[in-house]
Amino acid sequence: MQIWVDADACPKVIKDILFRAAERRQIPLTLVANKLLYCPPSKVIRALQVPQGFDVADNKIAELTEPGDLVITADIPLAAQVIERDGHALNPRGEFYTKDTIRERLTMRDFMDNLRGSGVDTGGPPVFSQKDRQAFANQLDRFLAKHAKVEAR
């Protein structure tokens, strides 16, 4: 298993949680972004810089994701691609996207895009909170504990 991070918009606090988890469990983690990112010195953590452009980082992550990999992203279309490839997608607020929920999320995303395109102010996402950070850390820990049990068999 590998962890991929859609790193352009991933909060720093989430990256820090991921760095600690990757080191603790020795799981390869790759930050993918179209800008140069900080990456702590590590044998399991690396950064992959992709060219500038719309969805270039997302496309690279989708291309490299293998079954069982974990992708950290708030991008719903990328999450859908990851799920199609039998990967797991977790957003920085601690919500897993699943085969059961991704179609509804894509529909809602498209609906909100249409509203914004017609001039309706839909607001933005809520401020990233301590509760979001904790929810993410808890989901990540549960996922990695379950995955480690499967790997040990």
- Please count the beta strands (DSSP E, at least 2 residues each): 6
Helix and strand pattern: EHEEHEHEEHH
Structural class: alpha/beta
Largest sheet: 6 strands, mixed
Mean of residue pLDDT values: 88
Radius of gyration: 16 Å
The largest beta-sheet arranges its strands as 3-2-1-4-5-6
Strand percentage: 5-15%
Poorly predicted sequence stretches spanning 5 or more consecutive residues:
none
- Anisotropy-based shape: globular
Helix content: 40-55%
**Number of H- or I-type helical stretches:** 5
C-alpha termini separation: 14 Å
Give a summary of the structure in a few sentences.
Helix content is 46%, strand content 14%. It has helices at 12-25, 56-64, 76-84, 102-117, 130-152; strands at residues 3-6, 29-33, 45-49, 70-72, 88-90, 96-97. The longest helix has 23 residues, at 130-152.
Describe this structure in words.
- The chain has 153 residues and is of the alpha/beta class.
- Helix content is 46%, strand content 14%.
- A 6-stranded mixed sheet has the order 3-2-1-4-5-6, sandwiched between helices.
- Helix 3 runs antiparallel to helix 4.
- The two termini are 14 Å apart.
